[in-house]
Amino acid sequence: MADGTRTVPAGRRRGGTVTAAGGRALDARPAAAVAAAFTALQLLLVRPGMGLGWDEIVYVSQVTAHTPAAFFSAPRSRGPSLLAAPVASWSSSTELLRVYLALLSGLGLYLALRAWRGLFPAGVLATAGALFATLWVTLFYGPQAMPNYWVAVGALICTGFFLRARAEPSARSALWGVVAGAALMAWMRPADAVYATLPLFAVALWRRHGRLLLALVGGLAAGGAEWVVEAYAWYGGLGERLHEASRIQGGLGWQIAVDDQLRSLGGRALCRPCTGAFPHPTVTLWWFALPPLAALGLAVAVRAGRTARTLVPLACAATAALPYLFMIGYAAPRFLQPAYALLAIPVADALRHLVRTPAGRWRPVAATLIALGLTGHLAVQYAVLDRTVDRTTRDRRDWARTADALHRLGVRPPCLLTGHEAIPLGYYTGCSSGNTTGHNENTTPAEVGRTARRVPVAAVTLPGAATPGYARDWTPHRIGDLRVLVAPRPPAAGPDRAGGFPGDGAR
């Protein structure tokens, strides 16, 4: 493997810049401007008043005292919960949480780009940040308490510092950057962290970089330790938790989900089952442009004698995307965020090569065509984002209206909701949530019946769905498109002696 990174020293600070080989200053301002614009666009385009989604509710409910904790299934990790805790632990304001996460995600992007200083020109890094930050999926999930964006940030930090540590083995700060990036990924999604770092392990083993191997292992262990401890505390061991996580995700194995990912690009938060028509070709065109542009970036790097710094992020992007393209039977656009972040740097380098000659002069025709293409790309991304935000906001307002209707029926905290969308409806109602079947099974019909003798309980179903056996004698009501069965009012409502209800708790 050609390794042009060894010609790049760690750099020296001079005020707000970093000096690379030859004395050229690498200005931090372009990356900072991109990060600031990313934060501003989130606040402008993804309205802070957009309510919490299903997965966010699971994560946020673990650290807030305002609502009972929702069921925490085997694949999930505590990273998003702890990320939201500085605000969610004392405030129930969704707007405040959104603003906090938007600011934090902008800072994360800036730090991720800075991890690559000295490896690529500042303009390439700023362009890469802009390409990633203006994807609708990045803007949509940046201000949300979700893990995938932060896996992407961790992947950029870990990979950038890995390449810098190879270029300057004596730079201890780069090793700590590898540890931090790997820990952040594992803190958010341990399995994703393993896949994203596989090429880094391969390079470290091949080149016998013992300290880099130790940094990678240490980072993954630090970030994933809590998940492993929970596996033994609640699931009977690591193997059992992995097996349960695989079951909940439909069984991991050879399953082609490329077409599912294409369908999700039109703004579907979760495509399971993934049916229906594909989005308009203009929506998916950028997705098909990524591979040839990445290949061009690699070809440019090979000709320039700096293969490693381009090939390594491309390999990490491929392994990060592998399980979500070929190992699960459903899709969500956020799953591929780490791959998009890693691909953005070689793609930005390829675009720079297309618009400038080796001597640094502009190619007017190519620059004009690429500018027009990027303008169209941004217009499509904004259109998809706008529709997605509008639809999501309406859906979450429907949950709030359903919660108000449940309150009018006497289902008020402390209370328990079961059945269809019990987790989000429970959060908006202020109730505990429970399910006796499915991926979120966390209680039994007998426990639901016992709880109904103490506190208000309601079962939510879709019209025409079978009535749960424990709710056959309950009073039916209609709330919008939902059928709600309310248990007979208990003589004295109150929590059980443990202070909770069936289904409460971290799991």
From TrEMBL:
The lineage of its organism: Bacteria, Bacillati, Actinomycetota, Actinomycetes, Kitasatosporales. This is Uncharacterized protein. Residues 487-507 are annotated as: Disordered. The keyword Transmembrane helix applies. The chain crosses the membrane at residues 96-113, 119-142, 149-167, 212-235, 285-304, 311-332, 367-385. The keyword Nucleotidyltransferase does not apply. Keywords: Membrane, Transmembrane, Transmembrane helix. It comes from the Bacteria.
